[in-house]
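Exercise: predict the fold of this chain.
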Amino acid sequence: VGDQAVGPLASMGPFPLLTPPPASPTSSGSREPEQLRNYGWPLGGDARITDFFSYRDEGFLSVDGRRIHEGIDIASRCGDAIRAAHAGTVIASGRRFGPAMGFSDSLDRFYARLERRGMYGALPIVVVIDDGNGYRSIYVHLKEAIVGKGDTVKRGQTIGYEGDTGNATGCHLHYEIARMDGGWMSIAKP
């Protein structure tokens, strides 16, 4: 179970390749990852990691010119509750989440292309939560999101349900934490 170019989006050809910025020596002061506290696991019960952060041809980000899978995939059962890993504010909920990811380039052309082809529904349902300390948690492939933009959530609160929307070969949660200070990511030009 994982993220792959399958289904309707596979026919669109390569996805936009996103390149993280170079390390910024003047970050805005968010904590180092090992200093983060009060984070929990987003799925309960017998959930297990089915895929890791790794180089992979289907990745959306590029590091040193190689595509990567930028999070971890966690699976339990379709429809299981997905919980907020930390307290924070929902800054995106639904299929149009790109602006909450911190990309400096607009994704409007990408969204317009999907809409023209009647494929907007092929995007995953995503929730992005800002923790207020320079980090955002991204929850991808939800069957349904039950929180909306602007909602304040507590750690452990149900935010949606495990699904397989978007590029997924089965029900799972793609989960990642993004550090938002420093340079911004931009879409790599072909």
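Check your answer against the key: The helical segments are 108-116.
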